[in-house]
C-alpha cells in the first residue's frame, strides 16, 4: 500500500504537529487527578494509542508531552526521532524493520523531552503507532515556535530551524 491508501483505509486526519493520525484506543478507566504527578491538570485515561503517518518532506515538529510516548514501526521506510532532553542534549533514534542496521521496531521517548520526526527516504512514508500512558490529552501537548525553542536550546539552532514549528 502507498501513503494515500493508508490515509484513506485508516481514515487518518491531519495532525497539528504535521503528518496524519487517528486515535484507535482510549482506555475507559481513568487515573484521578490527585493520583497523578503535578504536571497534569486533571484526570487522564489509563492509556491511549494512535496511528501516525508521515510522508517524505513532511515533519513532525518539535513538541513535548507530560508522558512517555512509545513509537511502534508498522510500514513504509525508516523514520528518525530527533530528541532534545531537558538538560539540552540532542539525540536521535531510527525506527524501522532492519535490525541489522540497528533500527528499532519500537522506542519510548521520555516524558518532558522535545521530539520531532522525519522520514528517512524520499518519495516514501512511515506508518507508526504511538502509545501514551497515562493517556494523551491536548492539555499535555506543548509545541513552541521554533524561535522560542532556539532560545531555550541555542546550541541546537540548526536542527530546530529544520524541525521547529513555524
Automatic annotation (TrEMBL):
Residues 4-143 form the DUF985 domain. InterPro entries: Cupin_DUF985 (IPR009327), RmlC-like_jellyroll (IPR014710), RmlC_Cupin_sf (IPR011051), YML079W-like (IPR039935). Pfam families: Cupin_5. This is DUF985 domain-containing protein. It comes from Saccharobesus litoralis.
Amino acid at each position: 500500500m502507498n501513503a494515500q491508501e493508508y490515509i484513506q483505509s485508516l481514515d487518518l486526519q491531519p495532525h497539528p504537529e504535521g503528518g496524519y493520525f487517528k486515535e484507535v484506543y482510549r482506555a475507559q478507566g481513568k487515573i484521578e487527578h490527585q493520583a497523578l504527578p503535578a504536571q497534569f491538570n486533571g484526570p487522564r485515561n489509563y492509556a491511549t494509542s494512535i496511528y501516525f503517518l508521515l510522508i517524505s518532506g513532511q515533519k513532525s515538529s518539535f513538541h513535548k508531552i507530560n508522558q512517555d510516548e512509545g513509537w511502534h514501526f508498522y510500514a513504509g521506510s525508516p523514520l528518525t526521532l530527533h530528541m532534545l532532553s531537558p538538560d539540552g542534549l540532542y539525540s536521535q533514534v531510527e525506527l524501522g524493520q532492519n535490525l541489522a542496521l540497528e533500527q528499532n521496531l519500537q522506542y519510548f521517548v521520555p516524558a518532558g523531552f522535545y521530539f520531532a520526526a522525519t522520514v528517512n527516504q524520499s518519495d516514501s512514508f512511515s506508518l507508526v503507532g504511538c502509545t501514551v500512558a497515562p493517556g494523551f490529552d491536548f492539555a499535555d501537548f506543548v509545541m513552541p515556535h521554533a524561535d522560542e525553542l532556539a532560545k531555550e536550546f541555542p546550541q541546537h539552532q540548526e536542527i530546530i530551524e529544520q524541525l521547529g514549528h513555524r
